[in-house]
């Protein structure tokens, strides 16, 4: 996995969007996001066939822009669609199941501290997501924000391991997050709620 993939990592589900989610994704891809995570969960999330169809539509769009398509949490769907990878919480089973059945795919794991990070690496993660850095309105059960201090501490101990930061990241603070050691920024609302996705992503790119 190339760490550049993490630079502008867009995470989205239909319930994060205020307009057609496929239009949001298309605009984000057009503007230059470097990775996409399909995260269809929470209140109002699609289920069943509509869920799979939406995932497949997102995958096709990503393929057209040659942007990696990662699925949040759902190993079965990731295998069924032959996604580029999966992103999971700290759940060894999901990592080992996916690794066994999908050689060469990307595995991302959410971590919150040095201890989690050691475990994720031992379990075979290709990259980690660290968060929440700032307060987020998007994930209701998010842990308390850590600010960039935790990120700096983790980066010091893991010099080269691919890290993407998440939680409350915007055009205004992305630079600070990168300076603290993140290879990239993962964002939901900063892109989903932007009225000028092109400009938002351009501004984020400027901080790379
Ligand atoms: N995971 P926004 S925070 C999906 O801390 C997610 O692991 C987090 O949304 C974590 O960019 C978060 O709108 C929500 O703040 C990110």
Automatic annotation (TrEMBL):
CDD domains: TMP_TenI. Pfam families: TMP-TENI (PF02581). Binds 1 Mg(2+) ion per subunit. Keywords: Magnesium, Metal-binding, Thiamine biosynthesis, Transferase. InterPro entries: Aldolase_TIM (IPR013785), ThiamineP_synth_sf (IPR036206), ThiamineP_synth_TenI (IPR022998), TMP_synthase (IPR034291). Signal peptide: none annotated. It catalyses: 4-methyl-5-(2-phosphooxyethyl)-thiazole + 4-amino-2-methyl-5-(diphosphooxymethyl)pyrimidine + H(+) = thiamine phosphate + diphosphate; 2-(2-carboxy-4-methylthiazol-5-yl)ethyl phosphate + 4-amino-2-methyl-5-(diphosphooxymethyl)pyrimidine + 2 H(+) = thiamine phosphate + CO2 + diphosphate; 2-[(2R,5Z)-2-carboxy-4-methylthiazol-5(2H)-ylidene]ethyl phosphate + 4-amino-2-methyl-5-(diphosphooxymethyl)pyrimidine + 2 H(+) = thiamine phosphate + CO2 + diphosphate. The keyword Protease does not apply. One of its GO terms (cellular component) is cytoplasm. 2-[(2R,5Z)-2-carboxy-4-methylthiazol-5(2H)-ylidene]ethyl phosphate binds at residues 136-138, 168, 188-189. Mg(2+) binds at residues 73, 92. Its EC number is 2.5.1.3. Belongs to the thiamine-phosphate synthase family. Condenses 4-methyl-5-(beta-hydroxyethyl)thiazole monophosphate (THZ-P) and 2-methyl-4-amino-5-hydroxymethyl pyrimidine pyrophosphate (HMP-PP) to form thiamine monophosphate (TMP). This is Thiamine-phosphate synthase. The gene is thiE.
């Amino acid at each position: 996995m190339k760490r550049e993939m993490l630079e502008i990592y867009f995470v989205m589900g239909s319930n994060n969007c205020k307009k057609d989610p496929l239009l949001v994704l298309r605009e984000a891809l057009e503007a230059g996001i470097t990775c996409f995570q399909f995260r269809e969960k929470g209140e109002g999330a699609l289920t069943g066939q509509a869920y799979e169809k939406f995932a497949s539509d997102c995958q096709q769009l990503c393929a057209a822009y040659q942007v990696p398509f990662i699925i949040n949490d759902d190993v079965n769907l990731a295998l069924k669609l032959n996604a580029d990878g999966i992103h999971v919480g700290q759940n060894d089973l999901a990592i080992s199941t996916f690794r066994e059945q999908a050689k060469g795919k990307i595995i991302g794991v959410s971590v919150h501290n040095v201890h989690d990070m050691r475990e994720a690496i031992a379990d075979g993660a290709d990259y980690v997501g660290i968060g929440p850095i700032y307060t987020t309105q998007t994930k209701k059960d998010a842990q308390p924000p850590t600010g960039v201090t935790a990120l700096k501490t983790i980066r010091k101990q893991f010099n080269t391991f691919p890290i993407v930061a998440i939680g409350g990241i915007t055009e205004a603070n992305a630079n600070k997050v990168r300076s603290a050691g993140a290879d990239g920024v993962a964002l939901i609302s900063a892109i989903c709620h932007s009225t000028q996705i092109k400009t938002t992503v351009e501004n984020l790119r400027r901080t790379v």
